[in-house]
Each structure stands twice: as C-alpha cells, then as structure tokens.
C-alpha cells in the first residue's frame, strides 16, 4: 500500500502533501487536547508495534503479499487522533528505510493515516453501536472495521490514480484490482487487529481507548470524540 | 492478573522486537497488493528511485551487513526503537502543551 515516487503526477502528490500537512496539524491539536497520561507511553508502543507488524508480509494470493496497516488497531488503542499520528510517524520513519516515496508521503498519509485510522475508527464506532457490548464483540467490531479500512485505503489510492496516475492504465481496472487484492489483505488486517485488541482487553481493558465506555471507573473521562475539547485555542 | 503500565509497555515493545527482528527476515518477499497491481497493469516502471536510497538502512537492509536475514533483523531493531522514541517524544510534547494551556478540563 506504500506508494513510491512516480506513480502519481506532481500536482496530485503536492495536493495530497498539503492535505496531509493541514490534516496532521488538526489531528495533533485534537491529540493534544485528548491524550491521557497513560496514553503517552502507549502511543510510543503502538507506533513501534505497527512498524514491526508492517515488516511482516503475509501471502494473500499467488505471488502477492500484504501486511498490516494498523490504522484501526492504533485508533482503537490510543484514540483516533493519537492513532492517526502513530501511522504518520511510522510512515515518516519508513522513509528512512526508503519505503514509500518522499513526494508520495502525503498520498500515503492520506490513505493510511486519514482513511485507514480516522476513517477506520469511524467505521469502528458505527459497528460498536450496532453490536452487543462485550469484550469479544468489541474486538470483533475492531477487526471488521480494520478489514474495511484497508478497502477504504485502497479506494483512496484508486481516486488518486484517477486524478493523477502515471502509466496510462485503465482507472476502472486499476480500481477494481486494488480493491480486490486489498479485500484479501483486509482479512489478515481484521484477524490481526481483532486478536491484538482482544489480547489487550483481556490484560488491561483500561488501555483500550475504544472500550472506555465499557469499563467505567477505569477511565477518568468520557470519549474525547464526543465533545469534551475545551476552548483553549 | 494486573500488569503495570510500565511492564505492559516493556512487554509490548518486546513483542514488537520479536516480530521485527525474529520474524521479519522470514516474511513473504512477494510484491505487496499495490506493487502486484502495478506490475499487472503496466505502471510499475513509473516508480522512481527513492530519494533516500543511499540511507544506511534503505530497503530494510543495514549497510555493511552481508547476511540478508541478519541485515533485515538489524534494520527491524533500529526501526522499532526509532519509531518508539519518535512517537513517545511527539506524544509527550503534545501532552505537555495541554498542561500549559489555561483551559484544561481535567479534574484530578
């Protein structure tokens, strides 16, 4: 899912770069307003775990592999804002490893941090609302949202390719091919996410941001997405 | 069983290191979904060399380490520690910014 330099024209990359900078500054402000003390070291851990998990490519079809994006995993554990930042930090560090293009960094942040983590977290909240409220169903909701978030991110690529893709391939063909293979990768994403969230829920449920309302008393405050941000700015 | 936050973080980083150092050298080396689609549909050649292709850890291989698997494992070690530190510094800075703000809403 990491777009290298050259797949999109300069205008598209630049536009996505501007969206990434603007979006991340908003996300950082939101994270600053909502981060709890215990979520500070957890943010480090989640980013490190996502980096590690992204090194583990698993086979999905003949001659094709995929790896975790981790957007929903991060957002469910540390909240959507810090979660989106985790993915952006991972993408920045990966640039040192020459993984994902530099001019394509904005595109990758839009797809994996904004669509993957923030979009995926919105899906998680929706699923959580309609599913029974137990630890098991919460992990399942995270897994399903994670799977769908990969398809969402591949849809982001398809739109970007339609706007400024290089190489002259048919946009519809590329879009369906991307969505098809990422549906398979999404299954892996879902299984890993559900497993990881389930494990944290069994050990330290109070460290699962998305379960804040399930473990009352363990959390000092309500859900930061539900309007607690003060008027400090 | 209650694990302290400190031990949870230590344990979590240990798991991440196990993945990045122990498992990543044995991960699938097939092209990922995007690269496969780019190969199949004729735009893989549009990819340009990465600007940091001379980085000492480019391509998850540490320069000067001949053994491919060892090299990848070492790059995983570096990456996990750098990522942990970077995200920790960022979240600390963001958390500190709120503490200084006049309008914090925390009661206790």
Portion of residues in beta strands of chain A equals under 5%
Strand order of the largest sheet of chain A: 1-2
Radius of gyration of chain B: 20 Å
Per CATH, the class of chain A reads: Mainly Alpha
Cα(first) to Cα(last) distance of chain B is 26 Å
At the third CATH level, what is the topology name of chain A?
A: Arp2/3 complex 21 kDa subunit ARPC3
Question: How much helical structure, as a percent, in the residues of chain A?
Answer: 55-70%
Give the low-pLDDT segments of chain A.
217-233
> What is the H/E string of chain B?
HHH
Average the pLDDT over all residues of chain A and give the rounded result.
Answer: 92
> Quaternary arrangement of the chains shown?
heterodimer
Total count of helical runs of at least 4 residues of chain A: 7
Percent strand of chain B equals under 5%
In terms of structural class, how would the helical and strand content of chain B be classed? mainly alpha
Stretches of chain B where pLDDT falls below 50 for ≥5 residues?
A: none
Structure in a nutshell:
The complex is a heterodimer of chains A (233) and B (108). Chain A is mainly alpha-helical and 233 residues long. Chain A is 67% helix and 3% strand.
